[in-house]
Amino acid sequence: MTIQEAIKEAHDCAKEKGFYNPPPTVPAILALINTELSEAIQADRNEIKSNAALPYDNIIGESAFKTLYEIHVKDTLEDELAGACIRIFDLAGYLGIELWNPPTNLNELDIPGNIMEAMSSIGIAYIDYNNLATIRLCLSNAMGTIFAISKKLDFDLWAHIEAAMRYNRLREFKHGKKY
Known about the structure:
This protein is an all-alpha fold. It has helices spanning about 5-15, 25-45, 60-70, 75-95, 110-125, 130-155, 155-170. Helix 2 (about 25-45) packs antiparallel against helix 4 and helix 4 (about 75-95) runs antiparallel to helix 6.
């Protein structure tokens, strides 16, 4: 899956699941990205890591996939980082912008500090959310930081993104939430 394919899939799924009825504001979506990142910090603090052998492509039945995902992946550090990327992709789709593939190197692995770096990029996007160039740069930088974390932790973030997208397609309207 390419970044542009992920953008289309994430945004299409969000629309199908009712997240654009009514359409959210850009600041609201940015807040939800940072919520996913905060949940990733909590998962790390609580040492909640995925023990799944992703991808789950060989699991054909959707019910079996959903059950395995909920047991082995949901709410883990990997899942929350994937969720943040999916929300970044969704916002890019909503705004009709392409993201670029930023460098994925970290000098030092400091998960809360590294995640705060991604959150700071999202915060800068909020300050200038009417400027698409700023949003594109900030979303790309946040995504790059998330991918750098996954690289340092040696897990396949794309596999988690694809599994989370598959899981999201199986969830209820607005994932059972208000927004």
